[in-house]
Amino acid sequence: MVSNAIGPEGRGVLTWLTSLYMTSLHISLFGLNNVNSQLAAESQKNVSSLIIISLVSTIVAYVLVSPAVYWFWHRNHIALAHPGIFILMVFMIPIGSLCFKVQAMILGLRFNRAHNYIIFTEKALYGAVSLMFVYVGLARPETIWYTFATTSIIGLMIGFISLRKYYTINARTYRSLRVVFRKVEGIEKFAAYSYVSSIFVFSIELIISTMCAKYGGIQGLGVYGVARIIVDCLSVVFEYFNGYTRTQLSAEANVGRRLKIHAIMVGIISSAAIAVGVMLYVLSPFIMNLLFKERFAGSEDILRLLAISLTFGTISAIIGVLLRTLYKNFIIVILPAFYFINGLISALYLIPLYGAKGAALSTIVMSFTAFVCAVVSYLVILRQYKLGKLNTTRIEFIRSE
After folding, report:
1. H/E element holding 48?
2. pLDDT digits (tens, 9 = 90+) for 334-368
3. DSSP 89
4. Residues 399, 372: contact at Cβ < 8 Å?
5. pLDDT tens digits, 187-216
6. 283 burial class (0-12, 13-18, 19+ CB within 10 angstroms)?
7. Which site in 12, 168, 375, 390 is 20 to 30 Å from 357, CA atoms measured?
8. Taking a C-beta distance cutoff of 8 angstroms, is the pair 4, 137 a contact?
9. Cβ 29 vs Cβ 61: under 8 Å
């Protein structure tokens, strides 16, 4: 209903600004969302220190990132045409960064009910307020983005309330701050590699959106964006199970049991991803006609392509969970690097020729590349384990003293 109300052009504006926001957000995270989840799962005594680290790093990152985003603003016609949204987006970067870090700690602590409550509250409020704007005729990219900002702040407040019992600052906390990263071998490199990998992943999304707007027009980007919304909604479900799997693996010190738990989750999530991808591919004309009628013509073809990308991307993501919990830092960077390079090459070739459909084809190239690299890495890890060559020193629990 929101997309129908704001039309292809409005959806295109929101798609591009969301890509810019997510790229800026992950640049400001410094990879600490993955570290927070990992360390919170391994010892609750680390949470007080992680809260302090998250707050300080968010302020530092905002000071560093916001000037670059402001510089980019003056060199893009979409941002210049919507200054109100852009200013709010810059304000939202530290809020979103804290949201990711706090939710990562909540997942690490296995506060699944609190995490689900945050997600449900954000989505429910966002949907209800957005529909209210549609009903009263005030649905605009600006009002939709303001709604997103408000619900994100509410979600952050709920997250801090969920962690309230860990607000202890004393000599023990400061001592923990100095040693928390030294207690797990390789955690600094893990944070750095996770940071670089996330920048690869989200920057290519921004490049694709920018090129799609340039060669397919802002309306073409809107057609691509409306199909992407459906796929992203389904991805959220898979991401939840990825987060659950990561916390289960992080809390298991035995490598063999980690591999068994992960193998079960790979089987379940891969089967579900294939089933959802096939269903989405077959039903895409019906889905798009039911939801959008003629408003977003051509979106059914894009949805079919994105369904293929969803299947490959979901399987590679659940395999990547194991790589992260094993601190396979080199592989963590190599996978997104190939993802970025192939995505850039395919985007430079396909988007000028096919516009929005070329953007969808580029996502298939990227997700298939990630899928192949992830499967190869997974088979190598299994072989190392069977030969007794898998390094287990980097996945020890953080022992409380």
Report:
1. helix 47-73
2. 777 887 888 889 889 999 988 889 999 999 998 89
3. H
4. no
5. 566 667 767 777 887 888 888 888 888 888
6. middle
7. 375
8. no
9. yes
